[in-house]
């Protein structure tokens, strides 16, 4: 695996912000920046169809009224507005992000990337060819801090601070593990039944935190005994979610039974993921409150479900279960009975 860091668009954007402050920025300059491959990647990921309106926003960044901020894309109309304060800060303080960029360059060494590759490879099937994996960093046009798209991983310099650079190796490993899992899953995921798909849906996030964040579950144990548990994960969230293991196991088993009986549809299963497994609220919170959790139950239960199989049976059995999810039931039931 060769991990390639792409950050060359950042200096161009910092120069634009400085020029904008001095009244020298031009449409042609910004258009050239947004034609950079890393911003083209972002426009594709966010599905931006009104690129000219985004250019207009940045050319008028320092004077535009909040009510006049255009939408980035149809599905997330407030994305630019939600991030406007960050862009205004970068306009006023481009040197701040220049320092962050310098720190990122110093922190992301070949040695660090090699360590990331070791973590990722430990958590993927033997023989999978990852090839070149791009890690792209921009001053992002969108709302996500990090995401995997089109075989690459992107993270946003605007949301990065000096005091959280230490989590970058874990972040890189976690997201690049997703790239590898997507590559592996593409070989068989379209053939899965609803029951198989339901079980399999816990594998990606569960194994990412198992192998890349040293997650401690109820059954699944830390992979690295010489490192702290739950590295790069929110302590409150993981404690809370691990405390919900029995409830989660009950929901999991009942849903599998309902699928086998034909009393639950795929739409209802998908809704369950949205409402239960991907819920960031604690049980006592109301839907309109700011979520207290940084991770959803999908993470912790996925770690216990698949991570415990790795602990007991090793990588070959684990990935046989990932590829043939019905095998998970027998292996996991055996573990929970002992």
Summarize the structure.
The chain is α/β, with parallel strands linked by helices and 338 residues long.
Feature tags:
338 residues; alpha/beta; 4-stranded mixed beta sheet; 17 helices; 4 strands; globular
Overview of the structural elements:
With 338 residues, the protein is α/β, with parallel strands linked by helices. It folds into 2 domains: 1-167, no CATH class; 188-336, no CATH class. Helices cover 56% and strands 6% of the residues. It contains 17 helices and 4 strands. It has a 4-stranded mixed beta sheet, sandwiched between helices. A hairpin with a 2-residue loop joins β3 (146-149) and β4 (152-156). α6 crosses α7.
- Helix content, binned percent: 55-70%
Low-pLDDT stretches are none
Strand tally, please? 4
Please give the count of helices.
Answer: 17
Radius of gyration: 22 Å
Query: Secondary-structure element sequence?
Result: EHHHHHHHHEEEHHHHHHHHH
Distance between the termini: 38 Å
Count of distinct structural domains: 2
- Major β-sheet strand ordering: 1-2-4-3
Morphology call? globular
Mean residue pLDDT: 93
Which structural class do you get from the secondary structure elements?
alpha/beta
Quote the beta fraction: 5-15%
Report the major sheet.
4 strands, mixed
């Amino acid at each position: 695996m060769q991990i390639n860091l792409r950050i060359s668009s950042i200096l161009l954007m910092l120069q634009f912000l400085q020029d904008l402050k001095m009244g020298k920025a031009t449409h042609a300059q910004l258009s050239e920046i947004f034609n950079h491959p890393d911003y083209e990647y972002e426009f594709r990921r966010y599905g931006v169809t009104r690129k000219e309106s985004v250019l207009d926003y940045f050319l008028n960044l320092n004077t535009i009224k909040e009510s006049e901020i255009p939408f980035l894309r149809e599905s997330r109309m407030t994305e630019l507005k939600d991030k406007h304060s960050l862009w205004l800060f970068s306009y006023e303080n481009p040197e701040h992000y220049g320092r962050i960029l310098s720190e990122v360059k110093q922190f992301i060494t070949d040695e660090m990337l090699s360590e990331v590759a070791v973590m990722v490879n430990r958590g993927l099937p033997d023989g999978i060819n990852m090839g070149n994996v791009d890690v792209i960093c921009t001053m992002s046009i969108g709302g996500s801090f990090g995401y995997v798209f089109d075989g690459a991983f992107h993270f946003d310099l605007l949301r990065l601070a000096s005091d959280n650079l230490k989590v970058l190796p874990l972040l890189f490993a976690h997201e690049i593990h997703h790239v590898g899992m997507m590559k592996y899953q593409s070989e068989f995921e379209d053939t899965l039944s609803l029951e198989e798909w339901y079980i399999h849906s816990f594998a990606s996030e569960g194994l990412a935190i198992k192998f890349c964040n040293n997650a401690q579950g109820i059954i699944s144990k830390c992979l690295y005994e010489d490192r702290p548990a739950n590295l790069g994960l929110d302590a409150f969230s993981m404690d809370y979610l691990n405390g919900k293991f029995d409830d989660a196991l009950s929901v999991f088993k009942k849903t599998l039974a309902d699928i086998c009986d034909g009393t639950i549809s795929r739409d209802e299963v998908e809704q369950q993921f949205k409402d239960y497994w991907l819920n960031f609220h604690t049980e006592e919170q109301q839907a309109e409150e700011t979520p207290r959790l940084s991770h959803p139950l999908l993470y912790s239960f996925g770690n216990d479900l698949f991570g415990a199989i790795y602990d007991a049976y090793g990588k070959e059995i684990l990935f046989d279960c990932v590829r043939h999810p019905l095998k998970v039931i027998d292996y996991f039931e055996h573990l929970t009975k002992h």
